[in-house]
Amino acid sequence: MLTVDDPSDESGRHDDVDRRILAELRTDGRIGPGELAGRLGLSRTTVTKRLASILGDGRTRVVGLVHPTTLGISSYAHVSVATVGSGREVAARLCGRPEIPFVSLVCGEFPMVVEVRARDDASLSAVLDSIRALDGVESTETLLYTDLVRDVMSSGAVSADWLDDLDRRILALLQADGRLPYSAIAAGTGVSVGTARTRTLRLIDSGVVTIDVIPGSAGGRKVDIGLGFRVRGTVGESTAILTKIPEIRFLAATLGRYDIVATMQVDSQRHAAPALERVRALSTVVHVHGWVHLEPLKEDYSYPMAIQGARRYGGIIQ
Q: All domains of the chain, ordered by start, with CATH?
């Protein structure tokens, strides 16, 4: 019987190739199979097949990420939700809300955590009120983000005053599929392929949109662990240290029960203990509370784009 660590295990070799491909996609999300094969020293056929396998089931996605503050979204919160009975029906309703990009069933003090992103504090408060008013919601606990230190949005906010309708239509397409061919962008916007290429590259080069990877569960092998920190000294000192831990894929300074909230991703449960030990050993960390993400139901950071003649919904034009 083959073990995970057996070098002759075919799935193990595929895992290594997948990790290398994903690393390149995080650097250049629109890289073509030919160039990708050259960088990795693999055949184009192998790379094409592995790309199809990685992206084909929809769990791992390459998408265009527009920084929310570029679109006037400036208030964020991590919300733990206590439910009466099964939380799936509540979660299904929350998944349908555009202001809620992330919904996950978890193992911990609360059965569910969600993230809310709104245009201002008043809008955020209204969304929180609507969550508490849902049938099946017993209570909520809110952490307000004061600083998104490490987020899926790798670029900072960029002024979008110069965007026209064509730019916004391209952004809408890229949010759905960051690797969409220029020919498909052209067909979807009614312009030439050359214009589609020029406009798309301008949006990327200016930092309005970042083509990045929303990681999947890699067949259920990866484990996401939520962490709430109480720290001594300044929060900035602790976040500066935590950003150096490669397993931490999300990190925010917060107001509320915790000073910092983070998400740590490890390859398997056996990798979780040493990673957590490194975190607990940090000199600035006073307390760490954790929860395990059992089933992320939604992770979608796309936003309706402002287009002339469109209608307004929830403070965002669509």
A: 12-56 (1.10.10), 68-153+216-299 (3.30.70.920)
